[in-house]
Amino acid sequence: MKLILLGPPGAGKGTQAAELASHYGIPHVSTGDLFRAAYKSGDELGLKAHEVIQRGELVPDSIVIGLVERKLDSLKGSGWLLDGFPRTMDQATALDSLLERRGQGLDAVLLIEVEGEEIVARLKDRRICRDCGATYHLRFKPPSIQGQCDMCGGELYQRDDDRPATIRRRLAVYVAETHPLIEYYERKGQLVRVDGNKGIDEVMAEVKESLDRLIAERS
Question: 94: number of CA atoms within 13 Å, CB side?
């Protein structure tokens, strides 16, 4: 399967993507992970991307497309779940061109919809492990020990772009730059809408039901 996961920051895309990738046996390709890995390694593109992200803006298409294409090349034609890409029409058309050259196509574009103020409430309570990058949430997925990662014992911290003022800027960017993708994929008959205001397990059940129905229709 080749899937795209869309939705505003804080919609729970990372959590849902990890579960879906495991359930369907496909790699989870997160642009956030690609950015962080490139930044941690000192890669020039990663450093530039980090500066932009800290301002609550979208990383330039040229950087994102290059990183994603390199990652997809490494997967050697297997299925995948894209999380955080595409975010602009230029990225969407670049992905279309890439797939066309490979004789491939998308199976579905999952859209997790969440209201704006709920997103602010969610993101301000998100915490990340400094060592392994594991994600926690003080309301929905708290660590067993406050401030400490369950996986590796590393320190948990709040990212600068998870502070309320930056979150609202990110939401404004999402509406302006990413919202047109919803209409684009809906016109192509590839969009699957999911109510992300529900609990994590309810959202996952709805996503799996939609995808299983899609698979059954195509088999």
Answer: 16
- Cβ neighbours of residue 198 closer than 8 Å, sequence gap 6 or more: 206
- Token pair 């199976």 in the structure block, residue: 107
Identify the three-state secondary structure at position 101.
helix
**If you average pLDDT over residues 82-93, what whole number do you get?**
91
Radius of gyration of the chain (CA): 17
- Amino acid 13: pLDDT: 86
Q: Is 70 a catalytic residue?
A: no
What are the residues facing 145 on neighbouring strands? 148
Q: Tell me, yes or no, if 159 is annotated catalytic.
A: yes
* 139 counts as catalytic: no
| Both structure tokens of 185 | 């994929």
Per DSSP, the three-state class of 200 is helix
Q: Which member of 102, 159, 188, 213 is catalytic?
A: 159
Residue 168: active-site member: no
The superfamily (CATH) of domain 2-114+178-218 is: P-loop containing nucleotide triphosphate hydrolases (3.40.50.300)
Report the SS3 class of residue 27: coil
Residue 126 known to be catalytic: yes
Name the DSSP letter for residue 161: G
Q: What is the pLDDT of residues 108-166, one digit of tens each?
A: 999 999 988 888 888 889 999 999 989 898 988 899 999 999 999 999 999 888 888 88
Active-site entry in 71, 122, 126, 127: 126
Using CB atoms within 10 A of its CB, is residue 115 exposed (0-12), middle (13-18) or buried (19+)? exposed
